[in-house]
Amino acid sequence: MGEMAVRVANLQKSYGEIRAVDRISFAVPVARVFTLLGPNGAGKTTTLEILEGIRDADQGEIEVFGKRVRRIDRAAKERMGVLLQEGNFEPYLRVKEVLRLFSAFFRSPRSLSDVLREVSLEEKENAFVKTLSGGQRQRLALGVALINNPDLVFLDEPTTGLDPQARRNIWSLVTGLTESGKTVILTTHYMEEAEALSNVVCIMDHGRIIAEGSPRELAAQLGRETLIEFVAPPGREPSRESLGPTCKAVHRDGDLVVVETEDLVATLARLLAWSGTAESALAGMTVRQPNLEDVFLSMTGRRLRE
Amino acid sequence: MSATLAIARAQVAVTLRERITLFWFLVFPLFLLALMTLIFSNVGEDGGDMTFEITLVNLDRPSPGSADFSAGIVEALRHLGEARAGGEDPLFALHVPGEGVEPHAYLDEELAALRVGTRAAVVVIPQGFSENAARAAFSSRETVSSKLSIHTSGGRTSSDLAASILDQVFATVDREILTRLGLFDASRSVVLARREIGTQGREFRYVDFLLPGVVLMGFLTAGLFSVPGTILFGREQRILRTYWVTPLDVPRYFAGFALGHAALCALQFGCVSLLGRFAFGARVDLLQPVPLLYLVLAAATSLAIGFLIAAVARTGNAGMAIANIINMPMMFLGGLFFPIGELPPALRAAMLVNPVTYLADGLRASTGAEAGVLPPIATVAVPLAWIALCLGVAVFRLRLDEKR
Prior knowledge:
The complex is a heterodimer.
Chain A: E1 4-15, E2 18-29, E3 33-37, H1 44-52, E4 59-64, E5 67-69, H2 74-78, E6 80-83, H3 95-103, H4 112-118, H5 134-145, E7 152-156, H6 164-179, E8 183-188, H7 191-197, E9 200-205, E10 208-213, H8 215-220, E11 226-231, E12 247-253, E13 256-261, H9 264-278, E14 283-288, H10 292-300
Parallel strand pairs in A: 3-8, 3-9, 6-7, 7-8
Antiparallel strand pairs in A: 1-2, 1-4, 4-5, 9-10, 11-13, 11-14, 12-13
Helix pairs in contact in A: 5-6
Chain B: H1 3-17, H2 19-41, E1 52-58, H3 69-80, E2 92-95, H4 103-116, E3 121-125, H5 129-138, E4 147-152, H6 157-180, E5 191-196, H7 206-236, H8 239-244, H9 250-280, H10 289-312, H11 316-332, H12 345-353, H13 355-367, H14 376-397
Parallel strand pairs in B: 1-2, 1-3, 4-5
Antiparallel strand pairs in B: 3-4
C-alpha cells in the first residue's frame, strides 16, 4: 500500500442519543481524491469536521501524514486547506482582502495573484463578496482553501446549489489539485460528482461505512452489466421471463421500470417485441451502466437524495 | 501582516463600509453633538428675548423680631420679575422653590439646569445671611461680612449678562439698606461671591460638558451593537467557522477583534473631537494622560459589555434586542448628555450600578469640565469590576461556532 495522507481508525462521535459517526475506519492515499458519499445525515460532514479540527471525536485514532494526533493541531492545520459546507465570508470585504486576511493566518502563504489566477477570479479581485455569484463564491472559498499551498484539501459539498457550468468549473479545479500532488477529501451527495472526481469512494449511511472502493469496483460489485429504464404506468411492465434468460431482473422505481440485463441486444429485441404486443410506448427509454446510486440503492433500499 | 493585525484591519474595513453600521458608529454621534450643542448652548441668547431665567434659593431664616435683609433681596428680584412698563417682557423670569420643596434638592436641580443652559444664573442667599449682614453693618470689625452666592455658567453670554445685572441689583439693595440705617460704608457692603459652575479656573461651555458624553456614547454604541453583531451574525452566517479551520486560534482572534474595536473607537473619538473643537469651539482637552486613561477604560468596558451580550444571546437578532433594551438606560442614567440631578431612589440605584455614570464622571472631572461627584477611585474601580464580570461570563458562555 502507498503512502497515506490520513488514516482513521474506529472514529466515533455522538450528539446526545444520536450516533453521527459510528466507529468508522478508512485510509486516504496521497495525491488521490477520496470521497465520502452518502445522503444528508449520513455522518460525512461530522467526519470531515473532526478531521478539519472543528470538532473532537468521542473515540478513535487519527493519523495525518504519518503523525498520530489526538486532535488536529496548528501544525496539522498549516498543511491543510478547507472548503466548508455553507462557509461564508464577510460580505463587505473584497475578494483580494479575503485572501489577504486568510493568508495572514498561515506561516507560508502563496502569492495572492497566483491563487486568484488558479481559481479564475483575477477580474473579480476588487469585487465585494456580496456581489459574487454562487459559483464565484465557491471559487473564492476554494482559493481560501488553497492560500497556504496545502498538501491536504478538504472539500465539503463544494458544488451544492451550483448550476451545471459552475459545477464543472469546480470539478476541473479539483482534478488539477491531484495532478499537482495534493490529496483531496471530498464529501458529496451527488453520485455523478463522486464518479467524475473520485479515486476512492466511501459510501456512508447512518454514521457507518457501508462500501468502499473505486467507483468502477463498487459498480462491479453489483454484478449487473446494463440497465434499461423506461416510464410505464403501474401494472404495465414486462415479466422477467418474457424478456428471455439474459434478463436478470425487472423492477419498478416509482413510474420508472428498470430492466437489468447481461445481453443488451437480446433483451432489447425482446423488449421491443413486448412493447408491440402490449401497446407500450417505452416512454423515455434510456440505456446506462450501473452507477453509485444503484450501489447505494441495492445496499440500503433507498436513494441517495431521499 | 500578523493574524491579529489582519483581523483588526478587516473589522475596521467592514464597519466603515456597511452603511447602517457607519451611520450609528460615526454619523450619529457627530449629528448628536451638533444638534445638542446648537439647541442647548444658545438658550437665552436669541437676542430678541431679554428675559433672563434666574433662580433664587433663600436659605436664610432670620429669627422673629430680627432684621430680615434677605427679604429686601427677594423683593427686588420679584420686582424685576414683573412685566415692565410699556408691555415689555420682564427682565428676569424668577424661579423659586415651591411650597414644601426641600431647598437644597431644588438647588441641585437648578444648578443642573444652569449647566445645560436653561437658567442664566442661580442666586443663593445662605443661611444666617441676615444675621451676618446686621453684624457686618454694626460691627467695627471688618472681617465680619455677609455673602451672597451667584452661580453662573462661564462663557455663556446670557449668564454673564444676568450676572452683571444681578451685581447692580444687589449693590443697589445693599446701598439702600445701609443708607436707611445711616450706616452706608463701602467696606461693609455685602460681598457678592460669583461662582462659575463646573470649572476649575477655565471657561467651559455646554459643548465642553457634552463632548465627553458623546464620545462615551459612541464607544458604548460600538460596544453594545457592533461587538455582539459581529460575533453573533458571524457565528450564524458561518463566517467565524471559516477561521477555525485555519491555524488562527481564539486568543489571537480576540486580540485582533479588540484592536479593531480600539481603532474604531479612536477614529470615532478623533472625528467627534474635531467637530467639537473646530465647529463649536470646545475647549475641553481629552488628549491628556488621565482623560486618555478613562477613554481606554471606556473602550474596554464597552467591548466587555459587547462580549457579555454575545455570550448570553442565542442569535444575532436577540443580541440586537438586548443591546437596544440596555442602551438607552445606560446612556440616560449615566449622565452622558445632562447632569443627573435628584433622581427617584430606584433610578438612583440604577445610576449607581451603571458603569457609564462612573466613566462620565471620571472623564469630566479629569478634564476639569465638571467637579466630580463620585470618589475618583470608584470611577476606575466600578468600570474595572464590570469588565471583569462581563469577561468572566463571556469566557464560560460565549460560543464562537454553531452548536450541532
